[in-house]
Design goal:
Layout lengths: L2 H21 L9 H14 L20 H19 L3 H22 L3 E5 L6 H4 L7 E6 L1 H10 L10 E5 L7 H7 L8 E5 L8 H13 L6 E8 L2 H4 L12 H14 L10 H10 L3 E6 L1 H9 L15 E8 L3
Parallel strand pairs: 1-2, 1-4, 2-3, 4-5
Antiparallel strand pairs: 5-7, 6-7
This protein binds S-adenosylmethionine (SAM).
């Protein structure tokens, strides 16, 4: 038996143990299960050689259970294992991260003076992107998740002055009240991102959040990013995957099952039309709507990592909208 196979077997038994012991028993991932899941993929990507990676997040490893095992396995083996379970899942999340990184850097370079990260989880853009030093960042999430995050951040990053933590439950609390109390300035151009969150909160909560964002401005421009899960996942799951994707229906069910199992079920799914309508209702204009299929050749092809059609995972979309000062 060679080392590669031995390592895979060790990893699979540890994963199985963790899965049975903690996930199936519902005992460890109370509120940060999905935030950890995304941070884990960012950590894996950051282990790739600099000329092979799509994003770099050296902070992610601080939030990930079993980070030292993943480090030993390295990028290639970790991506390979993820692919065995769900082809395209890792690349989908990395495309999402990179797309938002680029959007935030561009918007801040052009005009935004404030950046509000909605459902920030273990997002580290406030630390890792090269943003204008005068930018004010508001990280918004559930109190419990923020407490865990702050306790795990490297010591030299915990008291960063340009980042303010704002706790919220989108389903029950007003975003405006929380942001204004934290020092948000309505006169400044602002970018808001809602990454990997809309599926977990009610449609009413998204509506009121968007309404409030639309009103949190006085003669200033607002840019809004939102990722959303495609409604077809429920009634036509195959349409959410590339041609020839193996067991598409089963994978669609597994992804939803695992999320529910860590205590964060997907309760709100949308169509392209739903999103356009929602944005229109609050005065936003949709400017972009992408998914992995569109970004495969932009981010992965130049690195020699372009995915074949039968590994494309399109079940989440990346929408950008603007509301200009009137
Ligand atoms: C999948 S994680 C995404 C985290 C981060 N945006 C990223 O992409 O790395 C979902 C995040 O939404 C937050 N969230 C879920 N429901 C929420 C609610 N009702 N109010 C506030 N935050 C919520 C979770 O705490 C978690 O951090």
């Amino acid at each position: 038996m060679n080392w590669g196979i031995e390592l895979i077997l060790i990893f699979l038994s540890i994963s199985e143990f963790i899965f049975k012991k903690f996930i199936m028993e519902d005992s460890i991932f109370r509120k940060d299960g999905t935030a950890q899941g995304v941070a884990k993929q960012r950590m894996i990507e950051s282990l790739a050689q600099p000329d092979k990676r799509v994003i770099f997040d050296p902070i992610a490893e601080h939030f990930v259970l079993g980070a030292s095992i993943i480090k030993i396995m390295g990028h290639k083996l970790s991506v390979w294992i993820t692919k065995k379970f769900t082809p395209g899942f890792h690349e989908h999340l990395m495309a999402r991260t990179r797309f938002i990184d680029d959007l935030v850097e561009k918007t801040v370079a052009e005009e935004a003076e404030q950046y509000v990260i909605l459902g920030a989880g273990y997002d580290s853009r406030g630390h890792r992107l090269k943003l204008n030093s005068t930018i004010k960042i508001f990280e918004v999430d559930q109190n419990e998740v923020q407490n865990i995050k702050r306790s795990k951040l490297p010591a030299n990053l915990t008291e960063t002055e340009h980042i303010t933590y704002v706790s919220i439950d989108f389903n029950t609390q007003s975003l405006s009240e929380q942001l204004i109390a934290a020092g948000f300035d309505k006169t400044k151009a602002t970018i808001f991102t809602l990454e990997g969150v809309s599926q977990y909160i009610t449609k009413d909560a998204i509506k009121s959040t968007l309404q409030e964002i639309g009103e949190l401005r006085i003669n200033s421009d607002t840019t809004f990013f939102m990722s959303y899960v495609d409604k077809r996942l429920k009634d036509a799951p195959k349409d959410c995957f590339g041609e020839g994707y193996r067991n598409a229906e089963k994978k669609a069910k597994t992804v939803q099952y695992l999320s529910a199992k860590v205590g964060e079920p997907w309760i709100s799914l949308y169509s392209h039309e739903d999103i356009k309508e929602l944005l229109d209702e609050f005065g936003f204009t949709l400017t972009e709507n992408k998914c992995l299929k569109d970004l495969n050749s932009v981010y992965f092809e130049p690195l020699g990592r372009k995915l074949p059609e039968n590994e494309i995972f399109n079940l989440e979309h990346f929408a950008v909208a603007v509301k200009k000062q009137s």
